[in-house]
Amino acid sequence: MKKKKLIAGNWKMNGDIALAQTIVDGIKDAADQSNHDVVIAPPFVYLPQVALWAKESKIQLSAQNLAKFDQGAYTGEVSGKMLKDIGCQYVLVGHSERRQYFGETNDVVAEKVEFALKNGLTPILCVGETLEERESDAWKSVIEAQLSSVVQRIGMEAFDRVVVAYEPVWAIGTGKSASAEIANEVHAFIFCTLIGKSDSIRDSLRILYGGSVTADNSAQYMAMSHIDGVLVGGASLKPDVFSQIIRSVE
Ligand code: PEP
């Protein structure tokens, strides 16, 4: 059976309530007509309202982060339990901006994946190398370590549910996307690394590409054998462009 692809939009810390409504209204048709999964990740504060607007559509909801606790005296944090409560199905974990600006290590990311799974959320686990790591040919060991911290903490059964997003740090928000061939090579590496540990996920594991995806290049990624969808940042804030990206997936 062919895997359903996944098209996800990460709004990051952008927009306001008016833009949130414009995006939801603007992508509804494309999402409803798609045979694939369409997911948006608005900022926390807009999630409940967006959940209501998206209710009658096929748009699914993701948060951009979650706490590594379920509840308690953790001022400013939001738990997986709360996200599930308001209708989230997915959560981004370990986005490179979380790793870079908020000190999230591989261990913290693995803990968060555990809390997401425990609360019935599908984690979108972001992995990827910096420019320096790519140029020094360290990308394989970097990505291997990012994956293996999750395997060590939770076991391979985590990957029955985890979606992996390959997001080369040098391609995020820079306009410099990885070529479809380079992305596919890394996706094949991720696929083989995980399949080598558990063949049972061969038909279910989804690996997304993220990094300056636009309506002009999305079809090239989607055509690649190991690319099962895209994680889109900047372009997901433009409903017409995000709709075109959704429609580019056959
Ligand atoms: C992202 O934030 O996950 C991302 C891929 O951003 P952009 O598409 O803007 O590069």
From TrEMBL:
Q: Which reaction does it catalyse?
A: D-glyceraldehyde 3-phosphate = dihydroxyacetone phosphate
Pathways involved:
Carbohydrate degradation; glycolysis; D-glyceraldehyde 3-phosphate from glycerone phosphate: step 1/1; Carbohydrate metabolism; erythritol degradation; Carbohydrate biosynthesis; gluconeogenesis
What EC number(s) does this enzyme carry?
5.3.1.1
Location in the cell reads:
Cytoplasm
Write out the GO cellular component annotations.
cytosol
Q: Active site: which residues?
A: 95, 167
The answer to whether UniProt assigns keyword Cytoplasm to this entry is yes
Molecular function as annotated in GO: triose-phosphate isomerase activity
UniProt entry tagged with the keyword Magnesium: no
Database matches in Gene3D superfamilies: Aldolase class I
Sorted alphabetically, the keyword list is: Cytoplasm, Gluconeogenesis, Glycolysis, Isomerase
In the record, biological process GO terms are:
gluconeogenesis; glyceraldehyde-3-phosphate biosynthetic process; glycerol catabolic process; glycolytic process
Specify which residues bind substrate according to the UniProt entry for this protein: 10-12, 173, 212, 233-234
Record's InterPro entries?
Aldolase_TIM, TIM_sf, TrioseP_Isoase_bac/euk, Triosephosphate_isomerase, Triosephosphate_isomerase_AS
Q: What protein family does this chain belong to?
A: Belongs to the triosephosphate isomerase family.
Quaternary data = Homodimer.
Q: Write out the function statement from the record.
A: Involved in the gluconeogenesis. Catalyzes stereospecifically the conversion of dihydroxyacetone phosphate (DHAP) to D-glyceraldehyde-3-phosphate (G3P).
Protein name as annotated: Triosephosphate isomerase
Species for this entry: Wohlfahrtiimonas chitiniclastica SH04
